[in-house]
Amino acid sequence: MSDEVRWDDESALSTPMQKTVARIWEEVLGIEEITSTDDFFELGGHSLLAVQVMARIHEETGGQALGVRTLIESPTVAELARAVEAR
Questions:
Q1: Angstrom distance (rounded) from CA 66 to CA 45
Q2: Distance in angstroms (rounded) separating the CA atoms of residues 15 and 29
Q3: DSSP label at 13?
Q4: Can you tell me the distance from the alpha carbon of 24 to that of 27, in angstroms, rounded to the nearest whole number?
Q5: Three-state secondary structure call for residue 26
Q6: For 5-63, what is each residue's pLDDT tens digit?
Q7: CA Rg, the chain, in Å?
Q8: Which residue, 60, 59, 58, 78, is CA-closest to 68?
Q9: Per-residue DSSP letters for 32-50?
Q10: CA-to-CA distance for 32 and 34, rounded, in angstroms?
Q11: Which of 11, 24, 25, 28 lies at a 20 to 30 A Cα distance from 47?
C-alpha cells in the first residue's frame, strides 16, 4: 500500500494523545505506521494485549486508569485517544 493511500488526512495522527496511543500499539503489536483509523482488534490485538496497552497508557499518561472495556468500546486510535483525554 502506498504512503499516499495509507496517510490521508482522515487517518493522520493529529493530536499528541493519538501519537502516544499509536506508539504504544506499535510497540505492543509489533506493527509500524499505525494510523488514527486503525482498529486494534483488526490489527491482531486480543484481550491479553489490550491489558498491556491500557496499563502502558495509564503509566505514560497518569490519571484514572481505564479498563480493557474502554479499548473494546473505542477500538481505533482516534476513539481511544478521545476516551483517554475525556477521563
A1: 17
A2: 21
A3: -
A4: 5
A5: helix
A6: 444 567 899 999 999 999 999 999 999 999 999 999 999 999 999 999 999 999 999 98
A7: 12
A8: 58
A9: S---TT-BTTTTT--HHHH
A10: 6
A11: 11
